[in-house]
Task: structure prediction
Amino acid sequence: MRTGTLKQAIQQQRQELTARLGASMRGLAARCRDVFADRATVEALLAAELAGMPHCKHLFALDASGIARVVARPLAGRDAERFIREVEDWSAAEVVPFISARARSVVAQRQARGDLCAVLTSSTAYAAKPVADFLGIEHVLASRLVAEDGRLTGSIEEPFCFGGAKVTVAERWAREHEVDLRVSAFYTDSITDLPMLDAVGEPVVVNPDPRLRWTAWRRGWPVERW
Result:
């Protein structure tokens, strides 16, 4: 294929992907409005969702920590307990029903043989908790928002659980629970979790984005479709 033709094909693919993402974001916005009343908050949350979508990493250069701060800022002053309850309700209704049978099976097998399982995610703990509860997982390692006197401050707790900082969070938890990450497994779909994949003895790639698929192939890591 000639260089010009290849460039045109890539550009067309990006345009088609952007259009599909736009449709997905509009659908997400409609659902979010039931939980978050103000438009600024919805738009900030959509930005966060966009940042977390694997294919978008090929379209944009994103500062995940910066986006997290943008997302948190409009939440200042919100009642913390009410906000957490709303996010948990949203996750239970919109995320939990889509957990695959394969995911449930893998967790159950791990637990049956005595493995200590944890959900490790850059999402908030409030969105992750219903997922963990559904899977029977006690430990949730995730991002959290700062609250004072029952109100959100508009800030996030540090470190933001993303990229290399996710390893920091995992290592701290591992020390507290006498877990050796070098003989532990970690499952992910995103290239942004490469530091965490490097930190464990059993990296497993699930439904990967293109860059992670390529990395897994080069390193001989197992790739699973759930």
Observations:
- The chain has one domain: 3-224.
- The beta strands are 118-124, 139-143, 145-148, 151-156, 185-188, 202-206, 223-224.
- The chain is about 55% helix and 15% strand.
